[in-house]
Amino acid sequence: DLREFGAQKAVYASSDGIWPMYFAIVDRLRHPMSIMNACIRIEMPDGVFNPPLYFFSIPKHLIHLHPYTDGVVYLFPRKTFIADQPMPFGPAKVHPAQLASLVPVKPLAKLAVSPGDFPFLAQMRAHDDNDLNTYARALNEGLPWPGDESA
Questions:
Q1: Which of 10, 88, 115, 128 is least crowded, fewest Cβ atoms below 10 Å from its Cβ?
Q2: Which stretch of DSSP H or E encloses residue 136?
Q3: Strand pairing report for 71-75 and 53-59
Q4: φ and ψ at 103, to 5 degrees?
Q5: Residue 26, number of CB atoms within 10 A of its CB
Q6: Cβ atoms of residues 121 and 24 within 8 Å
Q7: Do 126 and 57 touch, CB atoms closer than 8 A?
Q8: Is the distance from CB of 21 to CB of 41 less than 8 angstroms?
Q9: What is the pLDDT along the chain (151 residues), one digit of tens a residue?
Q10: Euclidean distance between CA atoms 106 and 124, whole angstroms
Q11: What is the Cα–Cα distance from 66 to 122, expressed in whole angstroms?
């Protein structure tokens, strides 16, 4: 992970129901790959939260293979999970949807999902593994996505 919160030894979860589906359907067993993803909400200065913003990417050399599979999303009790801290973004705050439990936790339930369940499959981005440092810098510093002519 690019940030300290996501690099600790923990059980990770999300306060968002869509984000975990990405991890469940990307087939990293048959197609070992780097992944890039995010789920955030912006809190405006008046305390109002915008809808979630998502980012999902897999390596460019694999996207034509449709490296997806059926998977499982685990539902955890919230009790031992802590939320990632919000980050300032001008006058607003960015709230990552990432949660972490520093102690083992058993799932309450499992939810089977398939690639067709993932609402952003058609919008999957593709990154070049050789350019990951450039992408990481863009994401961390709010720069335009490298190579995106619309930025």
A1: 88
A2: helix 132-141
A3: unpaired
A4: -120, 155
A5: 22
A6: no
A7: yes
A8: no
A9: 656 666 678 999 999 999 999 999 999 999 999 998 999 999 999 999 999 999 999 999 999 999 999 999 999 999 999 999 999 999 999 999 999 999 999 999 999 999 999 999 999 999 888 777 776 777 677 777 667 655 4
A10: 31
A11: 11
Residue 71 tokens, joined: 């998977």
**Residue written as tokens 């390596």?**
59
| pLDDT reported for residue 148 | 66
Token readout for 111 is 């939810």
Structure tokens at 67: 């490296």
**Kind of pairing between the strands at 71-75 and 109-113:** antiparallel
Reading the block at residue 42, the tokens are: 């912006």
* pLDDT for the residue 133: 73
- At 132, phi and psi to the nearest 5? -60, -35
Three-state SS letters, 49-89? ECCCEEEEEEECCCHHHCCECCEEEEECCCCCEEECCCEEE
* Local structure of 19: helix, strand or coil: helix
Kindly report the pTM of this predicted structure.
0.83
